[in-house]
Amino acid sequence: MKLELKGITKAFGSLVANDHIDLVVNPGEVHCLLGENGAGKSTLMNVLFGLYEPTEGSIEIDGKEVQFQGPGDAMAAGIGMVHQHFMLIPVFTVAENVALGNESTGFGGVMNLEATRKRIRDISDQYGFDVDPDAVVEDLPVGVQQRVEIIKALVRDAEILILDEPTAVLTPQETDELIEIMAQLKASGKGLVFISHKLREVKAVADTITVIRRGKVVGSAEPSASATELANLMVGRAVSLNLNKTPAVPGEKTFAVKDLSVLGEAGERLLDGVSFDVAKGEILAVAGVQGNGQTELAEAIMGLQKHVFGSVKLDGKELLGRSVRQVIDAGVGFVPEDRTVDGLVGDFSIAENLILNLYKDQEFASAGTLKRNVIKANAKSRVEEFDVRTQSAEAKVSTLSGGNQQKVVLAREFSRPLKLFIACQPTRGVDVGSIEFLHRRIVAERDNGTPVIIVSTELEEVAELADRIAVFHAGRIMGIVPGNTGREMLGLMMAGMTAEEAESQLSDGKEPGSHD
């Protein structure tokens, strides 16, 4: 089945998310849609899957124009979509999830699942999925849940499969397995649209690469193109992908976490007896698949979690039990996961956001009145130092791009002497050019003698920044390993092996101590 998008435009009011995009997907081809977060990739695919109606343009299948009123129409036409966040009901079995929306009932209106089970087994055998139709979804690893999503599409006879950022929740091993599955689907004649911002994966799977920037197609490339060439296309200017940081020179271990546990509202352990320390002048990266306790760790340190036990000491003084304000005043800088919700006040100006943690200081306020001229001068200095692209520091911070918003957060946190710096997903939704800048600033803070903790689900980022890596799984640390530990070993640890177990498994094959 051949798919063509012609002049697809999607506008939300004055915002044009997709601007006259042309795209062709041929049978037996992996067509990669490459672009930064916010470039318009997912919007385009939501148009294709019937979730959005295009403002302009047309969709053609085998030369005939089609119109979709919803996902049901797209699926009936042979298009399937595997969303970044799975559309599965955890307490249902695989067969029950696959049958949803495609139910057939027998005598008395009782759902007949046997035909669905047989279809799942047939597809599993054909593609080597190894999925049990009667397994409960919440008991399955994330990689297997993703296969269930693919099976859901194939059961409905999809000839075109859209995979939206499919590796975001996978370990390296699960990513490799997905790439093998994609190769099998391609060999069977399926057309695949692979949406990603990860250059390494795009180069590994693509037959054709289309690059989108700010809602427009800005070029196409062959898989043989270098990562630098692809990055330049994505950003629109030359960027460097190499950090070139000097080795760390760790000093005194001034930050220590001991037996730290966090309980959820239902009493479940979100963090389970975590212990580690960080020295001055080193970066400890916390790695793991999203949802394995990393967020709770950072929030516990910052005083944002309620049910916390154990010890968190900075310069020998206990932080647990202190308010967020007191933790900040103790010298902790913090970049939250979601800058728009927890890091910035969208309706405040850039200048105001730059003093959110300092507005009570005598430098910026006197007798309860803000010193507007001082705040303005501070903003001018920080905007220049951190290369924040804006017409005015008085503009609302919500008007900035994601990368520039993140620069404002870092500029604010680095505007005072720090005793500890924590950054969660520091470059999420940030363009390649801004990543280069933000990484350099984080390393500069390390070199300034500050203990640094980076929480990231991006292994490339972990590899770039880490002096040591703490790998999390199910709320526990599987081990703390050197910063140059290879993807394969990190992947095994992210899946639940201790460092010793992972090293033992790899000892008879590839050496685990270096990068791919």
UniProtKB/TrEMBL annotation:
Q: Which GO terms describe its cellular component?
A: plasma membrane
Give membrane topology per the record: Peripheral membrane protein
Q: What is its main location?
A: membrane
Q: Which residues form the ABC transporter domain?
A: 3-239, 255-499
Q: Which Pfam families match?
A: ABC_tran
Q: Which domain of life is it from?
A: Bacteria
Molecular functions per Gene Ontology: ATP binding; ATP hydrolysis activity
**PROSITE patterns, A to Z:** ABC_TRANSPORTER_1, ABC_TRANSPORTER_2
- For whether the record's keyword set contains Nucleotide-binding, the answer is yes
Concerning InterPro entries, the annotation shows: AAA+_ATPase, ABC_carbohydrate_import_ATPase, ABC_transporter-like_ATP-bd, ABC_transporter-like_CS, P-loop_NTPase
Could you tell me what this protein is called? Answer: Heme ABC transporter ATP-binding protein
